[in-house]
Design goal:
By secondary structure, the chain is an alpha/beta fold. The chain has 18 helices and eleven strands. Strands 3-2-1-4-5-6 form a six-stranded parallel sheet, with helices on both faces. Strands 7-8-9 form a three-stranded antiparallel sheet, with helices on one face. A hairpin with a 4-residue loop joins strand 7 and strand 8. The two termini are 36 Å apart.
């Protein structure tokens, strides 16, 4: 039995997207657009397909449990863009498209005679979304650029981890995903511009810049104050109290760094005078005495069990919560009430649970409409419907390994 899914067409239901990307940065952008209703046609190399079809923690030879997420709401066709015939078919498809997403090394499409100049000459309304490690210009543009390198160059890796250890990494491919989100945002902005002017354009999303864009005031702090952010473990230096604190039977995350919230925390602790103590009375004072304040709070939380502490903090309006794993998410009543995770039908797994569409739109909500496709599953449908190719023509292309 599957969870109920909203079945609106979605806000982007009138858009057609050709996705050339592989792995995460391009395909996640395609997933986001598809979740919001766009028709996403994923173009993959014949006989190979996106490596994401095989990635994940499953045993070799078993179906990927990652591909059903990033491949959802897409159609799959095969096309060899290294062949002249494949390039010709791709150009024909581009005439029927609103958006093309690619995350090849810059210059690859141009090498195939499918750069933006050639495509826009055929379809001036076309939006070409280009995701790469370093962007389409600059001295590093031709370098291979994976997400982890973008995270390092964008400043994230240096500040992640414990201060007495080498830089760590976030446990997900955050650089690729941030680039995809920025590419999606740029796509929507370009679509709005096209709505007003009729003109398409290029969206240039670099992984390192997408990471850099999330780095708050890191650069300005150095520029104006000479301050270098360092690794600080579970805290942000100067933001207090905001940390993970021990209980009698676990740990709890508490964020009470705003003056009014800290006053409520002091009351909950039975020590309201802390909020007037010169060491803790305002944001800067608490930041200066952060380690000392954390020790005071930890001494108090360690006397309570987790459920009792959370109930007390909630009663006083103090942001707090557990640090969730997947098993916790699947049991949480709030996740269940909002269907943040849904059980979806799948031809190989029967059903499987995955994150739902976000954000929520009140009038045109996105939805998970179709499972991730098999490689080339929609060849006949797409090539026939969009290009008018008959069975004989398709058989010829297939014999020549074009599709």
């Amino acid at each position: 039995m599957t969870d109920a899914q909203p079945r609106s067409a979605g806000a982007l239901a009138d858009l057609r997207v050709l996705e050339l990307g592989t792995l995460i940065a391009g395909p996640f952008c395609g997933q986001l657009l598809g979740d919001m209703g766009a028709e996403v046609i994923k173009i993959e190399a014949p006989g190979q397909g996106d490596p994401m079809r095989h990635w994940g923690p499953q045993e070799r030879g078993q179906p990927s449990v990652w591909w059903p997420i990033i491949g959802r709401n897409k159609k799959s066709i095969t096309l060899d863009l290294r062949q002249v015939e494949g390039q010709s078919l791709f150009k024909d498809l581009s005439v029927k498209a609103d958006v093309i997403i690619e995350n090849f090394r810059p210059g690859t499409l141009e090498k195939w005679g499918c750069g933006y100049a050639e495509l826009a000459a055929l379809n001036p309304r076309l939006i070409l979304v280009r995701v790469s490690g370093y962007g389409q210009t600059g001295p590093y543009s031709q370098r291979a650029g994976y997400g982890g390198i973008g995270e390092a160059m964008g400043g994230l890796r240096y500040i992640v981890g414990e201060p007495d250890r080498p830089p760590a990494r976030v446990g997900i491919s955050i650089g690729d995903s941030l680039a995809a989100v920025h590419a999606c945002m740029g796509t929507l902005a370009a679509l709005h511009h096209r709505e007003r002017t009729g003109a398409g354009q290029i969206v240039d999303a670099a992984i390192y810049e997408s990471v850099l864009n999330m780095m708050e005031s890191l650069v300005t702090e150095f520029d104006q104050l000479g301050h270098v952010r360092e690794r600080s473990g579970p805290i942000l230096p100067g933001i207090a109290p905001s940390n993970v604190y021990p209980t009698r039977d676990g740990i709890v995350m508490i964020g009470a760094n705003q003056d009014t919230v800290f006053a409520r925390l002091a009351t909950a602790m039975g020590t309201p005078g802390l909020a007037k103590d010169e060491r803790y009375r305002d944001h800067q004072a608490r930041g200066t005495h952060q380690r000392e304040l954390d020790a005071v709070i930890a001494q108090w939380t360690a006397t309570l069990d987790t459920s009792g502490l959370l109930a007390l903090l909630e009663a006083h309006g103090i942001p707090s919560g557990l640090i969730y794993r997947a098993s916790d998410m699947l049991e949480d009543p709030h996740f269940l009430a909002r269907q943040a995770i849904v059980n979806t039908p799948h031809p190989q797994f029967g059903t499987l649970r995955m994150q739902n569409v976000a954000p929520r739109l009140s009038l045109t909500p996105g939805s998970i409409r179709t499972p991730a496709p098999e490689l080339g599953q929609h060849n006949e449908q797409v090539f026939a419907d969009l290009l008018g190719l008959d069975a004989q023509a398709l058989a010829g292309y297939r014999a020549r390994n074009v599709i």
